[in-house]
Amino acid sequence: MSSLTTQFNLKTDNSGLAGTIINNPLRLGDRFFVEILMKNSDINPVGITSGAINLSFDPRSIQNIDNPFNPSDINSLLITSNFPFGRTGILDNTNGSITNLGGGSLPFWGIGSPLGINQLDTFSLLHFQVIGNGNSSLVLNIDLSQTGFSDGSVASYSGNQSQLIKIVQVDSSISIPEPSTILSIVILGLGVLLSKKRNQDNSNDG
Length: 206
Known about the structure:
Distance between the termini: 99 Å
Strand content: 35-45%
Number of strands: 11
Helix content: 10-25%
Largest sheet: 6 strands, antiparallel
Radius of gyration: 26 Å
Order of helices and strands: EEEEEEEEEEEH
């Protein structure tokens, strides 16, 4: 049995690229990235050779916008390019889920390479957008039964965290002037225009 460390980050969208870790509430229409990192945290790590995750979210608040959502494409950031073998994953934006997103490598056969040796490496990068008000829970489940290591071992169910939760905070407050304030502004504007017109008429009469 081997040890797995997983990290789960929300990152800003910097012109379509993952930016910095998000520390403030998002707003309606904002785009952001979900970054999932993995590391073989044994004393003598050999690296991760396979993995799969499931992710659930509130579809009324956020939606995945990876287009196309095609994990089988080796160039897709949905799954690390270290894992070119058996790449799978199903997106269901209607019900708010991404299931069995994963793949693997066969280093001894020259197919792919191990992940997370002595460092956290990106396993998956997902693109989302805020479409509605209200916070949304992002629930990440690591399928430990599909997490393999270069020495042929699998992830231990003891001591390995298999579920992580992030809250996507959405700031739904929009500063809208009160109707009385709007009316005062309109009346003030009309008053200024009428005053200017009156001064102009008096100037013409003189």
